[in-house]
Amino acid sequence: MKITRVRPWIVRGPLEHVDGQVADRSEHMAKYVFVQVETDEGLTGWGEITSYPGTIANQTIAAALRELDGLLRGDDPTQVEALWHKIFRAYTYLGTRGAVTAMISGVDIACWDIKAQSLGVPIHELLGGKVRENVPLYTHFQSDQTVERMVENAVAEVGRGSVAIKTDPFIAAGGQLMLTRHTAYTNGEIERELENRGVAMIEGIRKAVGPDVRVLIDAHAMYNVPTAVRLATRLAPYDIFWFEEPVPPESYEALANVRNQVPVRICVGERLYTRFEFLPILNRHLTDYIMPDVTWTGGISELKKIATLAEAFYTPISPHDASGPVNLMAGAQVALTVPNFYRLEARRITLDFYSAFLEEPLTVRGDVLIVPNKPGLGVKIDVEYLKANEIDG
Q1: Which of 80, 106, 197, 204 could form a disulfide with 35 if both were Cys (CB 3.0 to 4.6 A apart)?
Q2: Whether residue 86 is found in the same domain as residue 133
Q3: How far is 54 from 305, CA to CA, in rounded Å?
């Protein structure tokens, strides 16, 4: 079997609605990047590399994938490991993190899809088989700038079946200001009023959902060390499950400094790339949970290796997912095979907004994603939808 084409798709997805209203950040999340790998035997594999917040990164990676098409044509897509290293080494002088590993991820996922289809089995069968039947989720809920609405929205998500919910209360409190700061912060601090309102949100949510629902906090790596320590310490009385990405990912020293001062569990990893960046995090005991993104860190191949590496440290893995259906299903295929798996991230407990992309919708029962026992990823992308909604970036 030979690769005949590597084709990126930048497409607009349907706006997500929650309780009849357009969801927060829906416009930011509405552009998706899929990777289609075609073969001379008629099998097609699908990957994804959707990046947040989007446009520039999506355009850059799509352009690089068009170049990658020439590098991979004629190669055997079932030789997944060889292709992984071929791409990794071809771009090594650009640096092997971020855009390069995203390209690898898209192709890697698609090639696993092809390989498993060619053998008539789900991907998880090629990764050692199941250690669990299905995949528990933790989910986000609609954010709002008011404490009252945040509490209502959290309760509604729990009512739909989620038992583990995540939010960034400080982005919620700041609205568009903090959304902009998400990728444009400088001093790593936060206004006192926004801080106080964010803390009040979590206090209200904990009282409303009770002690059994897990409340996870995302800090989006926006803070300096004293600010991160203060925020985590203020949230600790509300039994938060973890405090995620307290500081930017570039400094292990900053993370160690926070880790040594806070009374809560830490989670990092969505902006770490390949096993090589996770190893020092694990060796230095800088986190309680890791959350590599299968579409950014190096694909199914790398997610499985990172999970096995973390298993040696008895560190749970909770794959990141804030993008599209291929991301979700690729992470789920690995999660089925991983003993040290916690939960898979999903944007909502109800995933109807993915249905437009798919020939068959995803199924969630309670807080569990049902992974179809079908060859490959278990989902098929609707190419006609992609054609009708393709955009330039």
Answers
A1: 106
A2: no
A3: 27
Give residue 29's identity as a one-letter amino acid code. M
Domain assignment of residue 75, yes or no: yes
Are 83 and 130 part of one and the same domain?
no
Using CA atoms, how far residue 358 sits from 13, 179, 237, 310, 363, in Å, is 11, 29, 42, 33, 12
Residues of the chain with pLDDT under 50: none
Residue 390 CB neighbour total at 10 angstroms = 12
Query: Which CA distances in Å does 300 have to 131, 218, 303?
Result: 17, 24, 5
Tokens of 131: 């250690």
Tally of domains in the chain = 2
Distance CA 281, CA 358 (A): 37
Q: Are residues 361 and 269 in the same domain?
A: yes
The pTM of this model reads 0.95
Same domain, 77 and 196: no
- The type of residue at 208 is A
User: Is residue 160 assigned to a domain?
Assistant: yes
Whole-number pLDDT of residue 13: 85
Angle between helices 252-259 and 274-283 (to 10 degrees): 40
Non-local CB neighbours of 130 within 8 Å, separated by 6+ positions? 124, 336, 337
User: C-alpha angle with apex 248: 246 to 249, nearest 5 degrees?
Assistant: 105
Look at residues 304, 305, 262, 308 and name the one whose alpha carbon lies nearest to residue 287.
262
* Domain of 95, in residue numbers: 3-121+382-389
pLDDT in tens, 224-277: 999 999 999 999 999 999 999 999 999 999 999 999 999 999 999 999 999 999
